[in-house]
Amino acid sequence: MFSHFAFLDLGAPELIIVLAIILLLFGGKKLPELSKSLGESMRELRKGLTGDVNDKKDEAEKKPGKTK
Predict the structure, then answer these.
(1) Which CA distances in Å does 17 have to 4, 20, 33, 56?
(2) Per-residue b/e over 3-41, b at no fewer than 16 CB within 10 Å?
(3) Nearest to 63 by CA among 55, 53, 39
(4) What is the Cα–Cα distance from 55 to 47, expressed in whole angstroms?
(5) Is the pTM value of this prediction over 0.70?
(6) How far, in Å, CA of 44 to CA of 36, rounded?
(7) Which tens digits make up the pLDDT trace of 3-49?
(8) What was the pLDDT predicted at 48?
(9) By the 8 A CB rule, do 51 and 43 touch?
(10) Half-sphere exposure (CA, 13 Å, Cβ side) for 21?
């Protein structure tokens, strides 16, 4: 997962410092909302990159079907 960010050359100490700064800026109550929105953004980006094939499947799953 971190191989994509190899050009940044971030180690554990740097990541801890970045996370501490984020915690100070946004606070503990706001972090779950931020992580949720980041996950949704990544999901939408992935959908856009893969194309419309997966969108049709997702729409079919969301529609309530008739159960017999």
Answers:
(1) 20, 5, 21, 42
(2) eeeeeeeeeeeeeeeeeeeeeeeeeeeeeeeeeeeeeee
(3) 55
(4) 7
(5) no
(6) 12
(7) 665 666 778 888 889 889 988 988 888 888 888 998 999 999 888 88
(8) 87
(9) no
(10) 6
Q: Are 31 and 23 in contact (CB under 8 A)?
A: yes
Q: Mind giving me the DSSP string for 24-55?
A: HHH-TTTHHHHHHHHHHHHHHHHHHHH-SHHH
CA torsion, points 42, 47, 8, 37, in degrees to nearest 10?
Answer: -10
